[in-house]
Design a protein that fits this description.
With 326 residues, the protein is α/β, with parallel strands linked by helices. The chain has two domains: 104 residues, 2-Layer Sandwich (Enolase-like, domain 1), CATH 3.30.390; 198 residues, Enolase-like C-terminal domain (TIM Barrel, Alpha-Beta Barrel). The chain has an eight-stranded parallel β-sheet. The chain has a three-stranded antiparallel β-sheet with strand order 1-2-3. It has a three-stranded antiparallel β-sheet with strand order 4-14-13, with no helix packed on it. Strand 6, helix 7 and strand 7 form a beta-alpha-beta unit. It is globular. The mean pLDDT is 97.
Length: 326
């Protein structure tokens, strides 16, 4: 039986609206690619992201445009040349990994010559809000590692309020490109005093060069600035870490290459995600052993998830079941 491709748009409501510096969402739209070959089925999910010029429609169309390649038996390595990096390629790449795992009976870790998966500590993300509201949520969620979404003016007060509420919790912060260079200089020493472990993407990606030569009392992590291995020559002098997201790299295949190159450059690795379901978290979890910070908590914010969802035992993320992916 020949391969077949299915492309679908799936929607997942959130438990409550989630806010970052660029806006707020209460429901997610994701694109799911399903590749069938005989009795085997492989699935991959992506979250189109407007910051990178993507829409649900454009991503679904990009996957449809690759239908001939996919149904003719195209493989993951050829896919790197067939489709550009981005959400569409991620969905197809994930489906191809899953299909191969199902067809061979091997796990994705075995296919990639990686150690077996084990549970891992993940962040819990608190959306951008008032200092009082963020502090109250930090206290209520009782998690050992929190990621605070920030947005510019008032951010220092937000972090101070959270730290006062949870003095023993580990903190990382994400500005989502909302700061100025002056904010980085003025706030970083105080954030270090507050025990913040990393600052994710403080400046707009177009302003990265303003970080050159600045003191970094808190390590800086590139997110929107880092899509693939070719970005690292430019980023290595400016950042201490990179956030690897499969929707940016265009799938696990390219993400593994980025991780290897980043480590060679002396950059530490954060593994992150767009807001999406457990199906999108599963391939990203393959990178967990290489990460100093694992930010794959999006399913915890959903009102409804996929069947066979990833299980979170408190702050510990468990490996995905093979019924879900891999």
């Amino acid at each position: 039986m020949a391969r077949t491709l299915e492309v679908a748009v799936d929607r997942f409501p959130l438990k409550k609206p989630f806010t970052i510096s660029r806006g707020s969402v209460s429901e997610l739209e994701v694109v799911t690619a399903t590749i069938r070959d005989g009795a085997c089925r492989g699935r991959g999910e992506c979250r189109p992201y407007g910051r990178y010029g993507e829409t649900v429609e454009s991503v679904a169309a990009a996957i449809e445009a690759a239908r001939g390649f996919i149904e003719a038996g195209g493989d993951r390595q050829s896919l790197l040349q067939k489709m550009p990096a981005g959400a569409a390629r991620n969905a197809v790449d994930g489906a191809l990994w899953d299909l191969e795992a199902k067809a061979t009976g091997l796990t994705v870790q075995e296919l990639a010559d990686l150690p077996p998966p084990v549970s891992a500590l993940v962040t819990y993300t608190i959306g951008l809000d008032t200092p009082e509201a963020m502090a109250a949520e930090a206290l209520a969620c009782a998690r050992p590692l929190l990621k605070l979404k920030l947005g510019g003016a008032g951010d220092l007060e937000r972090v101070e309020a959270v730290r006062a509420a949870v003095p023993d919790v580990r903190l990382v912060v994400d500005a989502n490109e909302a700061w100025t260079p002056e904010m980085v200089v003025d706030w970083s020493p105080r954030l270090a005093e507050l025990g913040v472990e990393l600052i994710e993407q403080p400046l707009h990606a177009d302003q990265d060069e303003a970080l050159f030569g600045l003191a970094r009392p808190v390590p800086l992590c590139a997110d929107e600035s880092c899509h693939g291995a070719l970005d690292l020559d430019r980023l290595a002098p400016l950042y201490d870490m990179v956030n690897i997201k499969l929707d940016k790299t265009g799938g696990l295949t390219a993400a593994l290459q980025l991780a290897e190159r980043a480590e060679a450059e002396g950059l530490k690795i954060m593994v992150g995600c767009m807001m999406a379901s457990s199906l999108a978290m599963a391939p990203a979890f393959v990178l967990a052993p290489r990460a100093v910070c694992l930010d794959l908590d999006a399913p915890l914010l959903l009102a409804r998830d996929r069947q066979h969802p990833i299980h979170y035992d408190g702050a510990m993320m468990q490996p995905p079941m093979r019924e879900l992916w891999g």
